[in-house]
Specification:
It is built from 13 helices and 17 strands. It is an alpha/beta fold and about 375 residues long. The radius of gyration is 21 Å and the shape is globular. Helix 1 runs parallel beside helix 11. It has a seven-stranded mixed beta sheet, sandwiched between helices. The protein folds into two domains: about 220 residues, FAD/NAD(P)-binding domain (3-Layer(bba) Sandwich); about 110 residues, D-Amino Acid Oxidase, Chain A, domain 2. Its cofactor is FAD. Its EC number is 1.14.13.-. Monomer. An FAD-requiring monooxygenase active on some tetracycline antibiotic derivatives, which leads to their inactivation. Hydroxylates carbon 11a of tetracycline and some analogs.
Length: about 375
């Protein structure tokens, strides 16, 4: 670069933060804008498995792989399939010898903290909710407008602002569509002490109980917490059709017990014994393929570019790889335009392939014969 570009990253998720970290390592000065009031304004969610060729690749490029391995939980890779009767059908133990082997787990909050701590002070501007982005018509410069009335100009705008990205509107008319599956999230605190039977059934990683378009998923986090996802193939407004108040935990519990009639008492414990309320989470995805024509001065990464169901297992990993690849492209090319072109030549085909796999994954996991399909997939030989 002959001049230092003004780089604005919208969204302080893993992909945007990885991008900022690598750019800073090479003398650039990106600024990250996030709508949250602070880094602790909301819960960051469950746990992530970091794949060697994507998430770990990005962390290595950011100089943070060793720090990640210190925090990671290799035992969290355990994957268990359970029948609706509570019988364990498949149990894959994690690798024991090499902490870098496989896809070690890390809590989302821990990963975000690691990335935030690696950035220079004031890199992230909290409480900056983007309202719109306007092209200034001079070779890719854009003006960002925030809800508090402030504006910023940038030579490169990176949309890392998730499923409902405002930056994406500059590139694409695509909007997320409902996948047909809704998760209702709950949780167990201090599970090993307070809920030992459920903790034992959940194991050290992820437990899947899938059958007939429904699922009970339990995912171990650090600190003895187990996050629960109660999945249903149902209408997006299922709760409104049932006249259900989602803030009424007792009513939600009773509705879920009706939905999961016939499941074993052990699995129903993940509905009845929760320590938290219930959060309704319909799952959305962008149309496949989602592509766009090159636009000077702006591009996307992560869910803004390729929102897909969590059954890809690649969402955060791809977002981080996107961020690393984009940063490396900016560093290696003489102009922002060349960097965006090179990055999108890699990003777009990779995104389409991953999104197709994610669509197949959720269709198989929430199907009439989902238990049989999942068991066949887990036990197939390479």
């Amino acid at each position: 670069m002959t001049t230092t570009p003004r780089i604005a990253i919208i969204g302080a998720g893993p992909g945007g933060l990885v991008c900022a970290r690598i750019l800073q390592q090479h003398g650039l000065t990106p600024v990250v804008y996030d709508l949250d009031a602070s880094p602790t304004a909301r819960n960051q969610g469950g746990t992530l498995d970091m794949h060697p060729d994507s998430g770990q690749n990005a962390l290595r490029a950011a100089g943070l792989l060793n720090e990640f391995l210190t925090l990671a939980r290799p035992e969290g890779q355990q994957l268990r399939l359970v029948g609706r009767d509570g019988r364990v059908l498949f149990d894959a133990a994690p690798p024991e010898a090499d902490p870098e082997a496989g896809n070690p787990e890390i809590d989302r909050g821990q990963l975000r903290g690691l990335l935030l701590d690696s950035l220079k002070p004031d890199t992230v501007r909290w409480g900056h909710q983007l309202t719109r982005v306007a092209s200034l018509g001079d070779g890719g410069t854009h003006r960002l407008h925030f809800i508090d009335g402030t504006t910023v100009e940038a030579d490169l705008v990176i949309g890392a602002d998730g499923a409902w990205s405002k930056v994406r509107r500059l590139l694409s008319d695509a909007v997320p569509v409902y996948t047909g599956v809704t998760f209702v999230e709950a949780g167990l605190d201090d599970a090993d002490t307070r809920h030992p039977q459920l903790a034992d059934l959940a194991g050290d990683g992820t437990m899947l109980a899938l059958d007939n378009n429904q699922g009970v998923i339990a995912q171990r986090s650090s600190g003895g917490h187990i996050r629960i996802y109660l999945g249903m193939r149902t209408d997006e407004d299922w709760h409104r059709q049932a006249a259900l108040d989602l803030t009424d935990a007792t009513a939600v519990r009773e509705a879920l017990l009706q939905e999961f009639t016939g499941w074993s008492p052990e699995l129903l414990g993940f509905i009845t014994d929760t320590d938290t309320g219930y959060i309704n989470r319909p799952l959305y995805a962008l149309p496949v393929p989602h592509t766009w024509h090159h636009t000077p001065g702006v591009t996307l990464l992560g869910d803004a570019a390729h929102l897909m169901s969590p059954f890809s297992g690649q969402g955060a990993n791809l977002a981080m790889l996107d961020g690393a690849d984009l940063a490396r492209a900016v560093i290696r090319h003489h102009t922002i335009d060349d960097a965006i072109t090179a990055y999108e030549d890699v990003l777009l085909p990779r995104s389409v392939e991953a999104a197709e796999g994610a669509a197949e994954g959720i269709d198989g996991a929430f199907a009439p014969d989902s238990a049989d399909q999942t068991l066949a997939h887990m036990t197939q030989r390479p």
